[in-house]
Design brief:
The chain is an alpha+beta fold. The chain has a domain of 70 residues. It contains four helices and seven strands. Strands 6-5-4-1-7 form a five-stranded antiparallel beta sheet. A two-stranded antiparallel sheet has the order 2-3. The radius of gyration is 18 Å and the shape is globular.
């Protein structure tokens, strides 16, 4: 019996798979936006604002295995993160993972629903 990945199924009435539909989605928050991480409320199965929630910059865009857009956050701007990664590249004779493992920390894998926009990049620059 063949193994079927749920994301390769097609929703009723669609000619595209869940993965294809997710790959068409774009990121709502651009790089360097300030966002607040929302708290997951188990009782209501929703994300809610928390007065102690972290406010960080969107430093990297990525996708989940099903194509869902995800956000990686840091105190660094996207440009500063890339510069910091370059410092670590090449330390271990061509190993490709060294910069990501040893470089600056990213907190990530956040879906859009778990974040709230605080400020867009152009608003931050204005002060």
């Amino acid at each position: 019996m063949p193994i079927i990945n749920v994301t390769d199924l097609k929703p009723e009435g669609s000619d595209k798979t869940y993965r294809q539909l997710n790959m068409e989605k774009t990121w709502k928050y651009p790089l360097n936006s300030l966002v607040k991480v929302l708290k997951y409320a188990y009782e209501s199965d929703t994300f809610v604002d928390d007065p102690h929630g972290l406010v960080l910059r969107v430093t990297k865009h990525d996708r989940d295995c099903d194509g869902t857009p995800l956000y990686y956050l840091s105190h660094l701007t996207a440009e500063k993160y890339k510069e910091a990664l370059d410092v670590f590249k090449g330390w271990y004779d061509g190993q490709t993972f060294d910069a990501e493992v040893l470089g600056p920390r990213l907190d990530g894998g956040y879906p859009e629903v778990s974040l709230r926009l605080i400020a867009l990049p152009h608003e931050i620059e204005k002060g």
